[in-house]
Every structure is written in C-alpha cells, then in structure tokens.
Amino acid sequence: MAAKVAFVFPGQGSQSVGMGKALAESFAEAREIFDRADAALGEKLSTMCFEGPDEALKLTANTQPSILTVSVAAHAVFARAFGKAPAFVAGHSLGEWSALAAMGSMSIEDAVRAVRQRGLFMQEAVPAGQGAMAAVLGLDPALVRQACEESAQGEIVAPANYNSPEQTVIAGGAAAVERASARCKELGARRALPLPVSAPFHCAMMAPVQPRLLAVLDAMEILAPSAPVVTNVEAKPNADAGRIRELLVQQVVAPVRWIECVEAMAAEGVTHMVELGPGKVLAGLVKRIDKSIEVVNVEDPASLDKAVAALA
Q: What pLDDT score does 247 carry?
C-alpha cells in the first residue's frame, strides 16, 4: 500500500540559534525564502535565525516569523526532493500559519509580516506577570479540564494545548494557573511545570488580539491552500479560503487540539508525517498519540536525506 503523507509544522518553542542555516547554505530554494522574509520585514531575520542572539530569538515578535521562515524554507527544499503533494497539512498554533504559507494560501511576505504582528499583539494583550502557562504531565486531559474549572474562582484558566494524552498545557491568570496546577497534582498529575512564556496563549485572555489580527488578515490576499489544512480550532480539514481568516482569529483564544488533529489525519488513512521546521517536538507528540504513524523531520540537509530515503 502506498504511503499517505501529511506535512506538519512546529509552533513556538521549537526555535534554536543556527536553525535554517545549513538549508540556506545548501539550497537555493531555502535561501530565496530567507531573502524574501528579510526583504518583507526590512531587517535581517535570517541573521537572527543563523547567529542569534538567543535572547532576541526568544521574543515572541521575533520567534514567530523566524520559525515560520525556517519551516517554509524546509518545505521548499523537501517538496522539490519528495516531488509529491501531501494528503493533508497541519501545524501547531503558529505552525498553522507556516502550513498555509507552504501551501500557497498566503505569500511568505504577508505571512512573516502578519505573524510578526500576531506576536506583538499577543505580547501586548496581557501585562507581564499577569498571565501564565504550565505543562501538566501524566493526567487525563478531561481531568485537567476539570481541575481548571474547579480552580478558576472567577478568573481565567483553561487547557490551551492538548498536546498528547500525557501532556496538556494550561493557560490563564497567574494565580489561577497556580491553583489549577496544584489541583492537577491532587488529581494524580505527575508534574505541573510552569512554562517560560511571555503571555498566556490560547485562552480567553488573548481576546484583545482578535480584532487587531482580523484587521491584518483583512488586508492580505488569502487563497485556497493546495492541500487541506487540519485546523487547530476544529481538528478537521479545511480547504475553503473563505474560512481561513475566521479560523486563524478564533485560534488565538481557542485550545490547540493537537491530539484530535493527529487522530483526524490517521482516520483519513495518513501513514507518514513529515515535520518541516526546527526541532522534533511534533514528531515526539505524534508518537505518543498514534504509534502506527511513521514520523520523520526535516530541518537540515542530513535530516532531509533521511526523510527522503524513509519515504522512498
């Protein structure tokens, strides 16, 4: 039986200094993506990816366009080597934007400018120190949801990322996240680790981002993607250009339903996934969700060769 392949794109937290450098040095397609991103932003985003400093790369307004550019560059190189279109694509939070750019739904120029704005809006939505996120390990997602409901006390705290059956990230007000973390441990969580993030992503505290992001999206040309995008908000494939804006605006306050995204692709017969972009975070999560799916990653020439060989 022929492999049915999906491409997946990582989100924030996958960045590292040096990402994309070997691809840009080895492949004209990758270099072109970096050049276009640099020109669109009017700055050397490529230098920040290749050389750092780490502190600059960690700022949300830099992280988001950087990861997107590396991911789209990895896709450009892999797509030419692989030569076949994916059955589906999906991305984790920011990665959904990378997926859309890779599938021709938006230009790389519009995409990097938009996620730069998205990152700024997210940073500005909640004053520093007022919001928090924590990763809850080893507790059923339904119990994590219950712990959040019991701990809210009129404040905001809710699951933000359903990453794998073993890992749910929660987000909200700092005190509410602390209470919910403690409650998760009472309910049997192995650990609840505070995350070093600049804002509480994917919860109702991000609502101020929505009208600002919609204005950015309204000014962009958005086309139908060349492969259906399994969205974070609905965990269903979407190829309708008319729905992309609303789904990206909803995504800011809605949880990332990554478990269901992977399950939806598996249910459609996907046998292999290729993680395009820095790191192997999604490869690890996919393995925990469905062991039958073969996952390879592409972030440099060596991993490209391995991925192409694995899918040959």
A: 98
Q: Residue 128: is its pLDDT beyond 90?
A: no
Sorted by where each starts, the structural domains of the chain and their CATH numbers stand as 5-125+206-311 (3.40.366.10), 131-197 (3.30.70.250)
Q: Tell me how far apart the alpha carbons of residues 247 and 237 are, in angstroms, rounded to a whole number.
A: 12
Question: CB of 252 within 8 A of CB of 210?
Answer: yes
Q: Give the whole-angstrom CA distance, residue 98 versus residue 237.
A: 16
Q: Centre a 10 Å sphere on the Cβ of residue 59 and count the other Cβ atoms it contains.
A: 15
What DSSP string describes 64-107?
HHHHHHHHHHHHHHHHHHH-S--SEEEESTHHHHHHHHHTTSS-
Amino acid 205 reads M
- Which residues are known to be catalytic? 93, 202
Both structure tokens of 288: 């925990």
The residue among 95, 96, 235 whose CA lies nearest residue 162 is 235
Residue partners of 47: CB distance under 8 A and separation at least 6: none
Q: Residue 80: count other Cβ atoms within 10 Å of its Cβ.
A: 11
Residues 15-33: tens digit of each pLDDT:
999 999 999 999 999 999 9
Provide DSSP, 216-260: HHHTS-----SS-EE-TTTSSEE--HHHHHHHHHHHTTS-B-HHH
Q: Which of 238, 220, 211 is nearest to 90 (CA)?
A: 238
The residue type of 212 is R
- Residue type at position 278: P
Cβ neighbours for 78, distance < 8 A, ≥ 6 positions apart? 7, 274, 276, 298, 304, 307, 308
Give which of 298, 126, 89, 98 is closest to 202, Cα–Cα: 126
Bin 259: left if φ > 0, else alpha if -120 < ψ < 50, else beta: alpha
- The separation between the first and the last C-alpha atoms of the chain, rounded to the nearest angstrom, is 13
Paired sense of beta strands 294-298 and 272-276, if any: parallel
What is the residue-averaged pLDDT of the chain?
Answer: 97
